Amino acid sequence: MISYKEEQNKFNFRVGAIIKKENKVLIHRLKNFDFWLLPGGRVEMLEDTKKAILRELNEELGLK
To answer: Whole-prediction pTM value?
Structure first.
């Protein structure tokens, strides 16, 4: 994963997908989270953003 700390801040390189169908947007909430998320996740080292979002959609939703 691509992340680094600078003083009190932490940067995580992440991707997220907006999936829209019939005027609705797909979001989800993980157990024990009190907020909603777009499907996505962290980018691996040397992985481009397109491959990262496709991998994350496959991992989280089983989409190819």
So the answer is: 0.76
**What are the CB-based long-range contacts (under 8 Å, 24+) for 3-11?**
3/42
- What lies within 8 Å, CB to CB, of 54 at 6+ separation is none
**CB under 8 Å to 7, separation ≥6 — which residues?**
none
Q: pLDDT tens digits, residue range 19-50?
A: 999 999 998 888 898 999 899 999 999 999 99
Three-state DSSP state, 57 = helix
- The phi and psi torsions of 14 (rounded to 5 degrees) equal -125, 160
